[in-house]
Each structure stands twice: as structure tokens, then as C-alpha cells.
Amino acid sequence: MTQPKWHLPVDRYFDPDPTQRRLAQELYDSVAHLPLICPHGHVSPRLFADEKATLGTPAELLIIPDHYVFRMLYSQGIPMEALGIPRSDGGPVEQDHHKIWQTFADHFDLFRGTPTGVWLAHELREVFGIQEKLTGETASDVYDQIVAKLALPEFRPRALFERFNIEVLCTTDAATDPLLHHQAIRASGWKGDVRPTFRPDSVVNLLTRGWRANIDALSQVSGIAVSSYRTFIQALEKQRALCKSLGARATDHGAQSAYTTALSPTETEAIFQRARRGEANPEDAHRFTAHMLMESARMSIEDGLVMQLHVGSVRNHNRWLFERFGADMGSDIPERSEFTHNLHPLLDKYGNDTRLTLILFNLDESTYARELAPLVGHYPALRLGPPWWFYDSLNGMKRYFDLVMETAGLYNTVGFNDDTRAFPSIPARHDLWRRASANWIAGLATRGIVDSDDAREMVLDMAYRLAKKAYRLDQK
């Protein structure tokens, strides 16, 4: 029996109006093959440190590390253990990757109409050359085809990096990371441009599980005995300098809210010492994180690293799941955010300083037109990141364009970043953004808001130039 094929029409995602659709196709075609700028994401640098590194099995590649995939399956009652997700207590989980893949394929219909379904369809057909749709019936054959491809040299991570036409890829690296993989990449002589990004959350958030152990690791990696707030700042600055020496252009900060405040030296030292004794409370953590956002902005002005702030996620909402499997298991939930007042102390001090670039990301779409677009449309230090996480989707992008661009202006946004752990999904994510951008700009052109010359410049900026400029990747 003939199996159904993937449905990926060349004009997918474009408006049904024939005039807009035709122009959207023309605009997309003009940028479809540009190099990919990937300034923020979570692909491990380990993949590129060794030229012989592989991507593992299909389950290891597409299911086990990807919370976009397993959260949907879990929502339908499929145990995490059945998907091979490691347990914190080392308890038993499914080890047969063929069986994990079969479970995934049996339920692939759950991803119909979702961004994850779109990305996976693109990956399987365009990256791995799989023509038939993934179903329970085709699961075994598709698995074998992917295994055969992954055994080939041209499917090793470095080869795919070059095939994907990635100009630069930035990883996300803890403040306690010695960056050995990045050093190995540089020492290897490979020409792929893979850069670290400094992320201090695990030592800044005082209530992080294992915070004191993380401080000890920071002491070890920096060579500075972190016993006070002053030495803590010194160690962070040293690690930022290490990141920058290996090509870093940015830092990344995750916080539940955008609250910022400046604490006195006495207050910061008292809170830090309470944390060292294991006595910090939620209010301590809240105020310390707010203060450290101010400090991080100060450091960025001094060392030139672009500062990213991701706000609005209630992490590990499912406490049972967190205790059983750990963090980043698909149970992070968006909440309402506020920027106008919360960010005001930082903007009062640094918002007019053109040496600072602070890129804001948020999971509360109601802030786009009300707060974020007016803020980034005014303060020279601010830029607005693309729709993030739950809104990295066709409809999420459309809402973003409609709510943000008229007030903020295109050039106070930063183009696209894929923000992914799933390396093979990078081309699919950029393709979706480029198509969505082309369609939005075509809508402006067909309504006479911009002319054809402006439209061509705008789509080039959205696909390539904005990200490169915002993250200072156009600088030597």
C-alpha cells in the first residue's frame, strides 16, 4: 500500500489573497537561501568539539532532549519513562529506542497544526529525505532510514552545520562552565563559527537547587574563592571575560519578573551571606535577582556584551514531575508580566546609555502593544526579541508583527533566533520566520504602506541583518 507523503507546498503559510501570496513568495525567495544567524539557542557545543561526533539514535535526537515533543505526549497520559526521559533518582526508564520511537509515531497525530509538527515535518523531509509521513505503520521504516543517514559522514554535526549554511551559532553556557568544548572547537582548526553565551542564572538565583555547590564550582572555575558578594562579582566578571575571549557576544538572563532594584553594599552582603548559610528566603532571592539584573547591565556597558532578559515563565509548575525528572521537563507555564514599573530603576540608570543593548523577551503577549513596544520605541538601550517559546509559531509571529511594529518600529527589534536544543530543527525554524516575515511585509506592500524597494530591504533585515547587527556579530 502506498504511504501518504508529507504535505509541504512551496507557498505554505502565505495569505490566500493571490496578490499578497504572489508577492510573499517573491520576497521569501529573495531570502530563502541566506546564511542563518543563530545568536541565541541551547544546542550543546559538545556536538562540534569532535569532528567525529554523531547525533545518536533518532530517539536521542528528536524525542528525549526536546521538551516541545515530550510535553505534548505527557499531556495525553504517556509516561515520561516510556519516552526514555532519565529520572533524577536513576529509576528505570525505557531503554529500547525503537520502542520509544514507535510510541512517538503512534501519537504523531497529536502534533497536527502545531509548530512542533511543522518543524518535525520539515526536518524529516528536508534534512533526512524522508518522503512518507510518520505514522504508527511507517515508524519502523522511518526509524531505519534515519539510522542509515546518521551513520554517514555528511550527517555528522559539523557537516550539517555547513549544509545548513549557518554563519554563526551561539550556545548558552553556565557561569560555572569551563568552556572546554568551545576551546576544543577553536583548537581544532574547524572553520565553523560557534560562540558561547554567558548565563549566570544558576548562581544568581539564590533558591536554585544546589546553589551552594554552584558557588563552589564558580570558585573553582574562576580561581577566585567566592566567600563574599565582592568576590562573587569578581568571579562573574572573570567568567564573562573568558566567554568573551572565546567569541561571546552576549549574556542571557532568565527571571520570573522584570523587577529591578539597586541594593546597598550592606544589603547585598547580608543577603549573600544568608544564602551561603542556607537561610535565604524567597524575598531575598527576589531582591537579589533584581539587583543582579542592574549589575549585569553595568557589566555589559563595561565589557560590551549584549544583555538578553527572558521574563514570564513560572518554572517547574508540576512539582511532582520536577522532583521525579528535574528541571526543563515541559512544565514551565507563562504568567502575566509587568515592565513599565519593574524595569524603571534599570532604565533610569542605564536606559539612555547607547553602550548598552538590552534585548527583552516575554511570554505575556498582552504586554507587547501596551508596554514593550512603547518602551523599546523610546529607550536607546532597549531592543525587543522575537516571539519566544510558546509563541514561536506562525500565529504567534503574526500577532507580534501586528502588535509591535507600528509603535516600536522594525529597527528596534532584533530579527529571529531559534532558541532551540534540537539542532536539526534550526533550518525549519528559520524557514518559518522567513515565510511569516515575507507574508507580513507583502501585506504592507499590497495595502500601499510600503513600496517594493522597502519591502525587499525589510525582508532582508528580518531574515539576516537585524540579528547580526543587534548581537554585534558584524563586528570583528
Would you write up a description of this structure?
This protein is an alpha/beta fold. It folds into 2 domains: 18-53 and 156-470, Alpha-Beta Barrel (TIM Barrel); 54-155, uronate isomerase, domain 2, chain A (Orthogonal Bundle), CATH 1.10.2020. Helix content is 48%, strand content 8%. It contains 20 helices and 11 strands. The protein has helices spanning 18-31, 46-49, 58-62, 67-75, 97-106, 115-127, 139-150, 157-163, 180-188, 201-204, 211-222, 229-245, 265-276, 282-303, 319-325, 344-350, 367-376, 394-408, 426-446, 452-470; strands at 36-38, 166-170, 173-174, 194-195, 198-199, 250-255, 306-311, 313-314, 333-334, 358-362, 382-384. The strands form 4 sheets. The protein has a 4-stranded parallel β-sheet with strand order 6-7-10-11, covered by helices on one side. Helix 17 (367-376) links the parallel strand 10 (358-362) and strand 11. Helix 6 (115-127) packs across helix 19.
What is the topological layout?
Blueprint: H1 18-31, E1 36-38, H2 46-49, H3 58-62, H4 67-75, H5 97-106, H6 115-127, H7 139-150, H8 157-163, E2 166-170, E3 173-174, H9 180-188, E4 194-195, E5 198-199, H10 201-204, H11 211-222, H12 229-245, E6 250-255, H13 265-276, H14 282-303, E7 306-311, E8 313-314, H15 319-325, E9 333-334, H16 344-350, E10 358-362, H17 367-376, E11 382-384, H18 394-408, H19 426-446, H20 452-470
Parallel strand pairs: 1-2, 2-4, 3-5, 6-7, 7-10, 10-11
Antiparallel strand pairs: 8-9
